[in-house]
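From the shared-data thread, chain only:
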Amino acid sequence: MSFKKVLFAVFVSAALTSTPAWAGSVEDELMAVDRAFNKMAQEVGVGEAFIHYLSSDVRLLSEGGQPVLGHAAMAEAMAGFPASVTLEWDPVEAVASSSGDMGFTWGRFIRTHTDEEGNVHTSHGKYLSVWQKQEDGSWKASVDIGNGNPAPEE
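Structure, as tokens:
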């Protein structure tokens, strides 16, 4: 075998067995997108943030309610999100597909509600968001699942 053929075989083998250049960075992107989603929710409101970050074919699967299917139904549901309720979350982990165009984040949330007497009620939960990379390079969540649990142990 000639030197050129050996060199070519080495390069092909390295290309096929090496980790893709984006490995790790897709997970970092997903964590950053999820954190930006939370930041927007704190700055302009939960409903507006959900409208911005969720896809046109979104599926919202919340505890205690029926699935909300599609962007229009989600926007309608979020229009009634009470101003007396805050929702803050923080992703714990991101996992990306090998193709780098899909992944999920999961984390914990805190929901705070102030009642008419000024009493503050806090509940905790966990969520999972499935993200898909869009043609413009942005990420949109196509599935968002959340349910309650006790406060995490510190």
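The first strand starts at residue 54 and ends at 62.
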